[in-house]
Design goal:
7-stranded mixed beta sheet, 7 strands, alpha/beta, 7 helices, Rossmann fold
Length: 218
Amino acid sequence: MKKSFLVLLFLFSVYAVFSQEGNVKIALLKYSGGGDWYANPTSLPNLIRFCNENIKTNIALESRTVEVGSLDIFNYPFVHMTGHGNVFFTDHDAQNLRNYLLAGGFLHVDDNYGLDKFIRREMKKVFPEYDFVELPFSHPIYREVYPFATGLPKVHEHDNKPPQGFGIIHNGRLVCFYSYECDLGDGWEDASVHKDSEAARLKALKMGANILAHCFSN
């Protein structure tokens, strides 16, 4: 598919979503490999509600699920991916995800613990020419709406490592943001799920709002 056609397809899909329902939809990415892509079921609905109430986004309250190899992915300007285990992209999956990201889409990958070695391997299929690079604390994603002077907040402790935010950047645009050793999605979940403090949950939600704001403004 030619790049110009992909851009038009993406823009048309986003326009259709806005014009039919008055708001934009975001989606959870379904992938193969056996990993629990469906983890944190309350996280996206809570993040959407927080953003609509606090930063005045107009996102449909019900998030959708989209398969990585489906053309339906072009209907969503923002796609969230999470899990604890294996990820596998077929060649078709990788090409479809690449086309989506080059056409203006945005992928947020949230390591729920155990995803790291798999997502790094599979994203090399999508962008063999790029590696994940750690974003400096001065990057706009850490201050789009709420300031995070030292980068990602720490929600859950796993291996006594600091949280890190990595990105894949194409032609100066951040197309994929990868939150590692952070567990943002756990912080977005209902308070009863992980028993996180309200302070930790609020930080996670604010950082999630920054990610969405960055997606919609770039």
